[in-house]
Amino acid sequence: MARAIEPLIAGRIIGDVLDSFTPTMKMCVTYNNREVWNGHELYPSTVVAKPKVEVQGGDMRSFFTLVMIDPDVPGPSDPYLREHLHWVVSNIPGTTDATFGREAVSYEIPRPNIGIHRFVFVLFKQKRRQIISPPSSRDNFSTRNFAAENELGLPVAAVFFNAQRETAPRRR
């Protein structure tokens, strides 16, 4: 799993969003049966519905928190609203998926306006079942601060995809 971190370094997820960590769990994120791979591009129209996020490994006594963010808001060249929070689910039992957890912040559809945006899913292992307090704002969210405030430590898995604004079909 150590090689799983290389695309996160190349995509500047490590640095912009996360500190370096060693992945210890497998997380599978799928939109309409299409798996998310680091750095692959997905169209905004394909990520409208909540993805299925499976935690693979662990056991039913382990609990996880999932965070989805966009570090490129409003645009990658000047991301002054970094990070924008799209989703938080806590208390996900190991070996299950996010639907078994508690949604602390509802899923917000990715809508990149300017440039190519990175959408990052980060999985943290909780020390125990706990209540996660939602932040006061989705903008200027900090995954690092959120993890520290909720005693989550370093991530155990992360994956990201790229998306950009879709152009409308032109009619003549």
Automatic annotation (TrEMBL):
One of its GO terms (biological process) is vegetative to reproductive phase transition of meristem. It holds the Pfam family PBP. PROSITE patterns: PBP. One of its GO terms (cellular component) is cytoplasm. InterPro entries: PEBP, PEBP-like_sf, PEBP_euk, Phosphatidylethanolamine-bd_CS. Belongs to the phosphatidylethanolamine-binding protein family. PANTHER family: PHOSPHATIDYLETHANOLAMINE-BINDING PROTEIN, PROTEIN TERMINAL FLOWER 1. This is Uncharacterized protein. The lineage of its organism: Eukaryota, Viridiplantae, Streptophyta, Embryophyta, Tracheophyta.
